[in-house]
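seq:
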Amino acid sequence: MGGGSVPWIIYSSAMVNFYYFYCVDEDFGPFFLKFCSYFPYTAKLCLNGHEYLKRQLEKEQIAFEPLDNGIAWCADVARAQQICDQLSASKIEAFFRKWLGQLPHPFAPADRKAGYRYALSVLQAEFSLTQIWQKALYGRYFFEEVIRENIDLGRPEQVQLIFGRKLQKKTVASGRFRTRIITEGVNPSLHVYYKNTHLKQYHKQQGSRHGLRTETTINNTYDFAVGRRLHNLPKLREIGFAANRRLLEMEKLSHDCQVGAAAFDAMQQPVEVNGQHGAALRFGDVRVQALLTVLVMMSLQVEGFRNRQLRPLLAQYLGLKESDITAGRMTYDLRRLRLHGLIERVEGTHRYLPTQAGLRTALFYSRVYARVLRPGLSILHDERTAQTHPIANHMRRLEREVDDYIMEQIAA
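struct:
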């Protein structure tokens, strides 16, 4: 070797000192920088894009409601989105260089002059979406259904859809794919894993605000064949937000539960539109069930139906004489159907047509009552079937299990 020395690196355990600087920036808000005191003198920068957004909105005097990690609403949503899109790699780089010029760090001026400089790479990137619920109860309905119906999200075939990655047999055999439900107190969270990437979803509450939080955390950019250097941030952002949106797409059926809950609740309550009052259409009420069943029949009237056409059918369904239902009573029923949005008047006439939502609601009310509730209760209460029918047997087993559980808890 010519008598010269040969340097090499030996891996060993050591107590390493780190120096943390917690600061507040005019544009980026709170952040921290961590420097290692040992070679190769690594540094770590942690910042939050939500804090950057809040600072910019404050500068432009755009009203918004802050959350601890996001905003609940904003007076100019389009401008807020522009600000988020403008948080680029070059801005983060400039921010980092600005604070390197103000904070002490391992590279002295002579080192920097010799070309020793920090190069930013992405160690961890988190991309989140938060939907704020108008009513907290709907958020709870939704998330409970999400967990119940999507426990298989961690399977490789589902992961392929969420992250847009075609998984080979070798990857599936050696990879990490799973779903976890973690409960802290009464708040559950849904976790999906793909290699080193973690997708988390949970019901978020802050004050009176309730939202659904969906966030993808990329811990290794190579999971998606993307480099680590900061200039890859736009590609990582595209991957992260696309994963969030795909997950929500896959949960569309579960989302219907909160829409359905709102629709069902509205039907159970009186309604007032432009000063006109309409009574509730309560599920199971004999007259309401008859009214909606007849409404399905009236959907076949291409030109619409009149008050006098509805009365004989409704009377027949209720086992009454047509004279027992007055025109005024029929007008009352038509008004509540119209104010609940189930029918609409044909302009310039006294005819009505079911709306699309009205027809779907009428079909569902009628079929569930006639095909599920009524025959099911008949099975449970009829002496001829109460002892032998499978449904009755399952109900008795459920009762026994509940009773046994209660007795165990009392004994404990």
